[in-house]
Design brief:
The chain has 124 residues and is mostly helical. It is 63% helix and 0% strand. The termini are far apart.
């Protein structure tokens, strides 16, 4: 097991190792806003074994999977990729869950109370 993974930042590992973000999600490690922390530091902050996480990252590296490095691409290309890959998928998911959301979360008035709560107050 290489100690270098333990000393690298979560943000750097997320960029360098395809699939690392899945592992970070599993362990609830913040690689975005907390991406400046080393793997060792982030794991210690959550009482996790950093060697266990590093081993999982090593297994990912051993698969030889590669990913596109977007850090050196023009902004326009990155934006087009994000819109196609993520925004389109989220819109599709929103359409498929629309009825569920409307049934689960009734519309609220400006003050945040639901229509049912308003009616209960006047029925009294």
């Amino acid at each position: 097991m290489s100690l270098t993974l333990l000393e690298q930042s979560l943000g750097q590992l997320a960029c360098d190792i395809p699939g690392a973000t899945r592992i970070f999600h599993t362990f609830k490690l913040d690689f975005c806003c907390g991406g400046h922390k080393s793997l060792r530091e982030a794991a210690a902050g959550k009482d996790l074994d950093p060697v266990l996480i590093a081993d999982a990252l090593h297994r990912l590296q051993d698969t030889g999977e590669t990913q596109h490095d977007w850090r050196n691409e023009p902004s326009e290309l990155l934006i087009a990729h994000l819109l196609a890959r993520y925004h389109a998928r989220h819109r599709e998911q929103a359409r498929s869950h629309r009825g569920f959301v409307l049934l689960t979360y009734p519309r609220r008035n400006r003050l945040g109370s639901s229509a049912r709560a308003r009616n209960a107050d006047t029925d009294g």
